[in-house]
Specification:
The chain is mostly beta strands. It is built from no helices and eight strands. The protein has an eight-stranded antiparallel sheet with strand order 5-4-7-8-1-2-3-6, with no helix packed on it.
Amino acid sequence: IVMHTMQAGHPMAATVYWSKAKGETYVAMNALPEPPKGMQYQLWVIQGGKPVSIGMLPNNMANSPAMQKVNMEVTSGEAFAISLEKEGGNPIPTTVYVLGKV
Protein backbone atom coordinates (compact mmCIF):
# COMPACT_ATOMS: atom_id res chain seq x y z
CA ILE A 1 0.00 0.00 0.00
CA VAL A 2 1.66 3.20 -1.14
CA MET A 3 1.02 6.15 1.15
CA HIS A 4 1.10 9.49 -0.69
CA THR A 5 1.71 12.99 0.61
CA MET A 6 -1.03 14.87 2.42
CA GLN A 7 1.04 18.09 2.56
CA ALA A 8 0.61 20.26 -0.55
CA GLY A 9 3.90 21.16 -2.20
CA HIS A 10 5.88 18.55 -0.25
CA PRO A 11 6.34 15.31 -2.21
CA MET A 12 6.56 12.50 0.34
CA ALA A 13 5.84 8.78 0.22
CA ALA A 14 6.00 5.64 2.33
CA THR A 15 4.98 2.03 1.79
CA VAL A 16 3.15 -0.47 3.99
CA TYR A 17 3.32 -4.20 3.29
CA TRP A 18 0.35 -5.80 5.04
CA SER A 19 -0.81 -9.40 5.32
CA LYS A 20 -4.37 -9.13 6.57
CA ALA A 21 -4.58 -12.93 6.96
CA LYS A 22 -1.47 -13.10 9.15
CA GLY A 23 -1.91 -9.68 10.79
CA GLU A 24 1.67 -8.78 9.87
CA THR A 25 2.65 -5.27 8.81
CA TYR A 26 5.95 -3.86 7.55
CA VAL A 27 6.67 -0.20 6.79
CA ALA A 28 9.28 1.64 4.71
CA MET A 29 9.60 5.44 4.85
CA ASN A 30 10.89 5.84 1.30
CA ALA A 31 10.62 9.61 0.93
CA LEU A 32 9.95 11.22 4.29
CA PRO A 33 12.33 13.91 5.58
CA GLU A 34 14.21 13.34 8.81
CA PRO A 35 12.01 14.72 11.60
CA PRO A 36 13.09 17.82 13.53
CA LYS A 37 14.63 17.45 17.00
CA GLY A 38 12.03 16.40 19.56
CA MET A 39 9.69 14.97 16.92
CA GLN A 40 9.02 11.42 15.70
CA TYR A 41 6.88 9.68 13.08
CA GLN A 42 3.90 7.62 14.24
CA LEU A 43 2.20 4.90 12.17
CA TRP A 44 -1.59 4.57 12.16
CA VAL A 45 -4.19 2.18 10.79
CA ILE A 46 -7.65 3.59 10.11
CA GLN A 47 -10.30 1.18 11.44
CA GLY A 48 -13.99 2.04 11.30
CA GLY A 49 -13.06 5.59 10.29
CA LYS A 50 -10.93 6.13 13.41
CA PRO A 51 -7.11 6.26 13.65
CA VAL A 52 -5.46 3.58 15.80
CA SER A 53 -1.77 3.96 16.64
CA ILE A 54 0.31 0.95 15.68
CA GLY A 55 3.64 2.34 16.79
CA MET A 56 6.40 4.89 16.67
CA LEU A 57 8.97 4.74 13.88
CA PRO A 58 12.72 5.22 14.42
CA ASN A 59 13.97 8.55 13.09
CA ASN A 60 16.88 6.88 11.27
CA MET A 61 14.38 5.12 8.96
CA ALA A 62 13.35 8.43 7.35
CA ASN A 63 14.27 8.86 3.69
CA SER A 64 15.77 5.38 3.42
CA PRO A 65 14.77 2.04 1.87
CA ALA A 66 14.94 0.37 5.31
CA MET A 67 11.90 -1.68 6.29
CA GLN A 68 10.67 -2.42 9.80
CA LYS A 69 8.14 -4.95 11.08
CA VAL A 70 5.36 -3.45 13.18
CA ASN A 71 5.01 -5.13 16.59
CA MET A 72 1.22 -4.80 16.77
CA GLU A 73 -1.01 -7.31 14.94
CA VAL A 74 -3.28 -5.62 12.38
CA THR A 75 -6.15 -7.72 11.01
CA SER A 76 -8.45 -4.97 9.71
CA GLY A 77 -8.22 -1.48 8.31
CA GLU A 78 -9.32 0.84 5.52
CA ALA A 79 -6.12 2.91 5.30
CA PHE A 80 -2.67 3.48 6.78
CA ALA A 81 -1.07 6.82 7.63
CA ILE A 82 2.08 8.34 9.10
CA SER A 83 1.96 11.51 11.16
CA LEU A 84 4.65 13.70 12.70
CA GLU A 85 4.28 13.89 16.49
CA LYS A 86 6.25 14.85 19.57
CA GLU A 87 8.71 12.14 20.62
CA GLY A 88 6.87 9.25 22.22
CA GLY A 89 3.69 9.77 20.21
CA ASN A 90 0.21 11.15 20.53
CA PRO A 91 -3.19 9.51 21.20
CA ILE A 92 -4.56 11.05 17.97
CA PRO A 93 -2.68 12.15 14.83
CA THR A 94 -1.97 15.88 14.60
CA THR A 95 -0.04 16.37 11.32
CA VAL A 96 -0.62 13.55 8.82
CA TYR A 97 2.22 13.46 6.28
CA VAL A 98 1.23 10.45 4.15
CA LEU A 99 -1.90 8.32 3.73
CA GLY A 100 -2.74 5.25 1.64
CA LYS A 101 -6.09 3.50 1.26
CA VAL A 102 -6.23 -0.29 1.30
